[in-house]
Amino acid sequence: MSASIKRIAISTGGGDAPGLNAVIRSVVLAAEQRGWACFGIREGFNGILLPERYPHNGVVRLTIDQVRGIGHLGGTILGTTNHGNPLKFATTMPDGSVQEVDRSADIHHYLKQMDIDALICVGGDGTLTIAHALHQQGLRVVGVPKTIDNDLDKTFTTFGFDTAVSFATECVDRLHSTAESHQRIMVVEVMGRYAGWIALHTGIAANAHAIVIPEIPYDAEKIAAMIRNRDINGRHYSIVLAAEGATPLGGQHALQASASSGYVERLGGIGDQLAHDLQRLTGKEARSVVLGHLLRGGSPTAFDRLSAMRFGAAAVRALDEGHSGIMVALAFPNVNYVALEEVAGRMKAVPMDSDTLQTGRDIGICLGDN
Q: Which residue from 28, 85, 109, 208 lies 20 to 30 Å from 249 (Cα-Cα)?
């Protein structure tokens, strides 16, 4: 056992994902087994940086009783945010302007004041980039990969992804019958930001006829040609899966909001755009459905629940073994450790030699370029 650790903290940042509560529970139980006290930071690091928001404390003691029965619940009992980057914290200045200020020193000071020896950061690429910076500044930090988008490098998968794909597949299964009944084109837009993992896996699993992903700029005319060919063969409906970050050839991402101080750009709208284009090109009625945040909610699948529990326990185990500046990662059959510097600021896109991508091509799914 690491004699230098008595108290640890855990933070959940970025978008919520099914399995976060399972990680929290696993961390608390594994810490208690070692005689460590565990504290939860509210809403990323806001519990430390904006204490006035939390009249009952922005950093709370987590006990076995407090995490009992939460493993199957969606969301996170600690709350989360994707607007509170402590390295670029949006701060209102005396003149009323908003500037991005590095407040990482405030985190160091608070944790030292509370005698907290180590930090577990649960999140996606943004959160783990923060974790890496805090480690470089001298904190003992271990990262846990979390994102429904599955776009974190150096791990086979992230918890939340399987749940998102499972729910999206169920939704598309339901759309087949209504699309066929009305002989329509149905364009289903799913999350994923700049990676097409959710769209690709859902599209193949749910028997979509076309899939557009950010990694392959699409030609709407090629999709329209596929739809016309289906009509000729007596199949008068089509299902198209669109990743929110997909782009037409020579075009740009569809945005709901541009990036601003403390905020990243918000993608969305490609489903409507593509449905409009396909209706114009084919003369067929087209509708778009945006699954959006529905993919983030609900109870995690057994796979995500187990992955989250394994990650949480591995993070505590890594601290006990003296590690810092690493992320726990799934590398079948085991969880291993990867340096945060190999993960921070890196995105895992769908590779062009992916056998899953090739499976889509082999079974005749149009990817907008064929």
A: 208
Tell me the β-bridge partners of 238. 185
Residue the block writes with tokens 């999350």: 191
Going by C-alpha positions, the residue among 168, 155, 75 that lies closest to residue 339 is 155
Are 158 and 146 in contact by the 8 Å Cβ rule? The answer is yes
Q: Is 130:108 a contact under the CB 8 Å cutoff?
A: no
Angle subtended at Cα 203 by Cα 198 and Cα 206, rounded to the nearest 5 degrees: 120
**More confidently predicted of 83 and 227:** 227
- pLDDT at residue 155 greater than cutoff 60: yes
* DSSP codes, 61-125: EE-TGGGTT-TT-SS-TT---SS--GGGEEEE-TTS-EEEE--HHHHHHHHHHTT--EEEEEESH
In the residue annotation, 149 being an active-site residue is answered as yes
Q: What's the N-to-C CA distance of the chain in angstroms?
A: 57
Q: Is 197 helix (H, G, I), strand (E, B) or coil?
A: helix
Task: Please give the Cα distance from 204 to 366 (Å, whole number).
Answer: 11
Tokens of 62: 């987590």
Which residue in the list 125, 149, 151, 304 is annotated as catalytic? 149
> HSE-up of 25 (CA within 13 Å, CB side)?
22
